Amino acid sequence: MKLFLDTGEVGQVQKAAELGILDGVTTNPTLIAKAGKGFRDTVLEICAALPGGAISAEVVATDYDEMLREAMEIASWHEQIVIKVPMIRDGVRLVSTLSDRGIRTNVTLVFSVTQALLAAKAGATYISNFVGRVDDIGGDGMEAVAATVEMIEAYGYASEVLVASVRHQQHMVQAIAAGAHVATLPFNVFEQMVKHPLTDLGLERFLADWRDAGLTIRSGTVAG
């Protein structure tokens, strides 16, 4: 599974990238607005913070002609950029056009397997299935993720299923079980993945035993 960070904060990308396991970053108009910088500058700084990563940047127009103009402008900024497109009628049309031009796309705000089918047929690189927002209204967001993974595999589409609106570790466990190709995480959820209380307890005991035994590591030689 690929791991993306869902943020507009360059500092968060830099910190996550230090682990050497980050594959990309997703942004949206809300995240860019919260970052408090210009759109282009923020996206380019994120590209620089994660060389080679897939960086999703979203169009904000909702009619085809303007969406296309925005998409071509954004795509010209950097080769790492993936054009993020909302799941609306003109968005599907835009994805078809960009796919024909060899431009990668991320279809966002997908909530059903039928929407995902349209995105896949249009040639979307990534299909962003939202789970947290469905859970918020009493549904099960992971159902659509699992169904979309099955659909992609059954028909052999090239699109990758991207789990978005991730709220907690259980969403990640479910995404892994569903066979999702990508998950994009808020920084706090990304940081939580490395943690487990038994890991902390185990390490504390190991180090206490090491200190009590008076052991040390010197000159490249491991004592004990």
Characteristic key phrases:
224 residues, alpha/beta, TIM Barrel, eight-stranded parallel beta barrel, 10 strands, 50% helix
| CATH T-level topology | TIM Barrel
Going across the biggest sheet, name each strand in turn: 1-2-3-4-5-6-7-8
Report how far the terminal alpha carbons are from each other.
39 Å
Radius of gyration: 20 Å
Characterize this entry briefly.
With 224 residues, the protein is α/β, with parallel strands linked by helices.
Helix and strand layout, with pairings?
Layout: E1 2-6, H1 10-17, E2 24-26, H2 29-35, H3 39-49, E3 54-58, H4 64-75, E4 81-86, H5 89-100, E5 105-110, H6 113-122, E6 126-130, H7 132-136, H8 141-155, E7 160-164, H9 169-178, E8 182-185, H10 187-192, H11 197-212, E9 217-218, E10 221-222
Parallel strand pairs: 1-2, 1-8, 2-3, 3-4, 4-5, 5-6, 6-7, 7-8
Antiparallel strand pairs: 9-10
Helix pairs in contact: 1-3, 4-5, 5-6, 6-8, 8-9
